[in-house]
């Protein structure tokens, strides 16, 4: 608010707005006479049960939040929030009105590198196996949904009960011109460690309601032009921070990470996060949403993309798939080839770090002996391993 210092209660515009909010609270039906006793009970009960469950708010606070958000909307529509971007939402938004259900809890059959290689954790970190995930880059069926399906992005962490060994893997799909993709593969092969965002992460969208994916211009608005039309998510791989902006190899990332930050504080909004196709894919392929789902559909109503999340049984995974015919079509229409870079680390489990870390020779990390990596190219029918 222009001209108002923090905690300045005498500022005229602030005082006027506060008076309007208090009037609206009463207009909605709240009064101390009606709610004082029950609010004292709720406040005392919340204090004694703190930490054991989601906090129960007093009626007075609930009515105040309603009036606050109404006033926020009025002032935003009137252009009075001068320091607030048109795509921003207030940080206090803790409920997504589309109430999405969590992504599917399903994981394909995975190679388990913990079943082979050294059982000693020190040997495992430095000389253990490389997981083989080629079979999950293309799936014929996912959780009863017929495909075939191609992996657009993923993360997998595997451990097992009573085992000090752990392995995690990033599975990144890339779109690029044929010559650019070959440059990516050559640089990837040359580098022993492809991490630290040498291959950039897809953007994270924390400012969208799940029900606004993919149709709203709020969805991943940084990937849109001034009119709201989607633009491809082109980033530069193997770029050195702070150097020439044209350094590195241009590649397109086909996904966006959706994160609803308000879910951390809301007992009624627990969907959390999901991976979804980028706005460019959604717009070109005409994808639509269905109520309360992160999976998207084509214009004929057939399922087009599936997000999968598993966080149990010592397996943590997040995978996004798209129907092969749709992803192939997008690649052809944009004149690009498809490839996958798969890499990660063998590490001690979280519980074993303090006990194990000092026993692992330093050169294991300095020489990146704990890193595993593979790469694949799409030949139009199957992912092809690049040996």
Key traits:
single chain; 387 residues; alpha+beta; 10-stranded antiparallel beta sheet; 3-stranded mixed beta sheet; 10 helices; 15 strands; 26% helix; globular
Please explain how this structure is put together.
- There is one protein chain.
- This protein is of the alpha+beta class and 387 residues long.
- The chain has helices at residues 12-27, 32-48, 59-77, 121-127, 134-137, 178-190, 279-285, 324-333, 353-356, 362-366, and strands spanning 138-142, 145-158, 165-176, 204-205, 234-237, 249-252, 255-259, 273-277, 288-289, 296-297, 303-312, 315-323, 337-348, 371-378, 383-385.
- β1 and β2 (145-158) form a beta hairpin.
- The N and C termini lie far apart (60 Å).
Which SSEs are present, and which pair or pack?
Elements: H1 12-27, H2 32-48, H3 59-77, H4 121-127, H5 134-137, E1 138-142, E2 145-158, E3 165-176, H6 178-190, E4 204-205, E5 234-237, E6 249-252, E7 255-259, E8 273-277, H7 279-285, E9 288-289, E10 296-297, E11 303-312, E12 315-323, H8 324-333, E13 337-348, H9 353-356, H10 362-366, E14 371-378, E15 383-385
Parallel strand pairs: 4-7
Antiparallel strand pairs: 1-2, 2-3, 2-12, 3-13, 5-6, 7-8, 9-10, 10-11, 11-12, 13-14, 14-15
